[in-house]
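Design a sequence for this backbone.
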């Protein structure tokens, strides 16, 4: 860790929780979403830098590692885009990140290609399918709308082979560009283009994609705890994923402020609070890698727990906590009605948030692997405000944090009541 960043961490940990808490919250959020961490993904060591940062925050707050280290390592396959992609349409360059991105599973490729637009009747009319796929696809760019993406990749043989023989695929996105993390690499380059950047008349496209598939990438969960004063063998667990989707070359990165620098910031605030207010139960803080790749970090932990999962009184997963004007959602609320009623009563008594909604089972964040193992868990995310998600616009500056303090108090009071 660079000395200047370590000094910054020490300054953050010295800020008091009450009165100046939002200054520390904003600084933590800005730091995690900064270009230094490059989207906390899998190029330029973005995820490793974020893991080191969190471990040093744990250490500065006086938290203890459960094992010999704050880190729990595991391996995973991941496709990466280490070079900034390029795309020109009719000799006009499009802006990466804003007008187009490489698909997460894109392969490398470079060249020029003429356009062939998908006849969408191929999925319902066999005669049209035979006619469409009888033409040559080499040196062509196959273009189709996002809504047909799954259908294209599920075409029967030999139509799928013909589609994959194209020079590249261009997928038109009707609204915002959204990207994710892919474990495997496609057999050809794939670019996603905003529909409003696609002109009516196309002659040819010029493109370049640099991709790299890492079959054995090292990722790290970051875990620490505070021993309980009266029941140290019973645990309240806070979780949040610190990873995001990274970037595409030096010029494009996805800050991931709401998803999930906000949840990681909330977890670190709770760690600071309990370090100064020793709890009755032991409290564990788990920040997971590779949530965006399919909950890989939390699945790895449940298969390799550092203490028996049966000792967890309750797990609270924190994700997408940058707003709150419209309240908060409790995933698994309907599965654990007693705890949800407790949460509701605490909120009503203190008027923290406008409402708390309830959902059932959902495999949408890191609570899920624990729930599948019988661990009682809620997943909290706030409602209202920003809609930026998995794109370059999820920056810390656009997060209002209008109910962050209230959400913190509600989560703290709920955790205390569970003890």
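Sequence:
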């Amino acid at each position: 860790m660079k000395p200047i960043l370590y000094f910054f961490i020490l300054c953050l940990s010295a800020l008091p929780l009450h009165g100046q808490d939002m200054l520390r919250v904003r600084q933590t959020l800005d730091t995690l979403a900064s270009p230094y961490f490059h989207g906390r993904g899998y190029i330029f060591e973005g995820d490793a830098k974020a893991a080191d940062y969190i471990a040093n925050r744990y250490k500065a707050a006086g938290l203890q590692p459960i094992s010999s280290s704050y880190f729990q390592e595991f391996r995973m396959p991941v496709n990466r885009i280490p070079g900034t992609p390029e795309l020109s349409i009719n000799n006009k360059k499009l802006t990466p990140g804003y007008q187009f991105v490489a698909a997460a599973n894109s392969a490398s490729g470079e060249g020029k290609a003429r356009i062939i637009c998908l006849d969408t009747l191929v999925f319902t009319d066999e005669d049209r399918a035979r006619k469409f796929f009888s033409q040559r696809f080499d040196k062509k760019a196959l273009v189709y709308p996002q809504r047909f993406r799954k259908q294209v990749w599920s075409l029967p043989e030999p139509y799928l082979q013909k589609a994959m023989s194209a020079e590249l695929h261009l997928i038109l996105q009707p609204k915002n560009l959204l990207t994710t993390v892919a474990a495997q690499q496609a057999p050809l380059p794939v670019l996603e283009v905003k529909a409003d950047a696609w002109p009516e008349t196309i002659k040819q496209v010029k493109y370049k994609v640099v991709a790299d598939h890492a079959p054995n990438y090292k990722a790290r969960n970051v875990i620490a705890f505070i021993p309980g004063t009266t029941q140290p063998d019973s645990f309240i667990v806070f979780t949040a994923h610190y990873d995001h989707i990274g970037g595409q070359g030096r010029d494009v990165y996805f800050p991931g402020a709401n998803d999930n620098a906000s949840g990681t910031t909330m977890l670190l605030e709770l760690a600071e609070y309990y370090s100064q207010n020793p709890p009755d139960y032991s409290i564990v803080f788990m920040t997971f890698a590779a949530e965006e790749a399919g909950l890989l970090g939390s699945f790895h932990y449940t298969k390799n727990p550092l203490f028996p999962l049966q000792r967890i009184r309750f797990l609270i997963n924190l994700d997408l906590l940058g707003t709150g004007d419209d309240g908060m959602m409790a995933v698994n609320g309907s599965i654990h009605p007693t705890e949800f009623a407790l949460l509701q009563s605490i909120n009503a008594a203190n008027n923290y948030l406008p409402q708390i909604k309830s959902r059932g089972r959902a495999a949408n964040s890191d609570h899920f692997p624990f729930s599948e193992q019988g661990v009682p868990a809620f997943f909290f995310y706030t409602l209202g405000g920003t809609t930026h998600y998995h794109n370059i616009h999820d920056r810390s500056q656009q997060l209002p944090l209008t109910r962050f303090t209230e959400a913190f108090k509600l989560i703290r009071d709920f955790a205390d009541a569970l003890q």
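Residues 174 and 195 are 5 Å apart (CA to CA).
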